[in-house]
Amino acid sequence: MGSPLASPLKTVATVVAVLALAGCQSGPNSRPVPSVSQIGGNLKCAGTDHGFEDPQAGWGFCYPSTWKYNERSQGSQSPSGLDLTFDITDVPCASPPAGASARPVCSPNAGLFAFMIISTYERGTATNLAAWEQANPGIGQAGETISWGNAVEAVKLADGRRIAMTQHHVVVLALHSGLGNLDLETQMSSRLDTWKFTF
């Protein structure tokens, strides 16, 4: 006669074997899916750049991985929209080599800062930027036509701001950095093609 534990042990062993076998089966999606949305995961950023996406505003872009930022949001009434402000600090530091001092190794530009405002407005019935600007005086004026991600139309204004018309929105990018601070113009203008306007 067998041990009284033999039957339960066989059952447990069978269940473990079935679960192990089921875990090895490949289904339609054999890649693990993160449980938390990856910010900027849909963007194709080059090198060590990071991606930032805001699904509510309907856009995303790539930025240097050495940037640290604080983001604030505020609604706007006239025209109706959303302003996102980014306080940016460049922190290009690396861990010290093994056996060296405990201090990180930072570039001479470490700590430079600037801020940018990205405003997203409703497009309404405007069929182009000129019509939208006419309906919303004070936002923009005529500018130089540029290419900006997958925008339907985009211009760079004389004051440096950029305005893009997407399928449903108008996006305004304003870069602010004082003399001797982080050069946002160079960093962001070289990454305009990374922008993705999702709706």
Summarize the structure.
The chain is α+β, with helices and mostly antiparallel strands. It has three helices and twelve strands; from the N terminus they run H-E-E-E-E-E-E-E-H-E-E-E-E-H-E.
Structure description:
With 199 residues, the protein is α+β, with helices and mostly antiparallel strands. The chain has one domain (37-197): Protein Transport Mog1p, Chain A, CATH 3.40.1000. Helix content is 16%, strand content 32%. The protein has three helices and twelve strands; from the N terminus they run H-E-E-E-E-E-E-E-H-E-E-E-E-H-E. It has helices at 6-24, 129-135, 184-189, and strands at residues 50-54, 59-63, 67-76, 81-90, 93-94, 105-106, 113-122, 144-145, 153-156, 162-165, 169-176, 196-197. A hairpin with a 4-residue loop joins strand 1 and strand 2 (59-63). The longest helix has 19 residues, at 6-24. The chain is elongated.
What layout of secondary structure does this protein have?
Blueprint lengths: L5 H19 L25 E5 L4 E5 L3 E10 L4 E10 L2 E2 L10 E2 L6 E10 L6 H7 L8 E2 L7 E4 L5 E4 L3 E8 L7 H6 L6 E2 L2
Antiparallel strand pairs: 1-2, 2-12, 3-4, 4-7, 5-6, 7-11, 8-9, 9-10, 10-11
Main sheet strand line-up: 3-4-7-11-10-9-8
Question: Structural class of the helices, strands and pairings?
Answer: alpha+beta
- Name the shape in a single word: elongated
CATH class categorisation:
Alpha Beta
Total helices: the number is 3
Question: What share of the residues does DSSP label as strand, in percent?
Answer: 25-35%
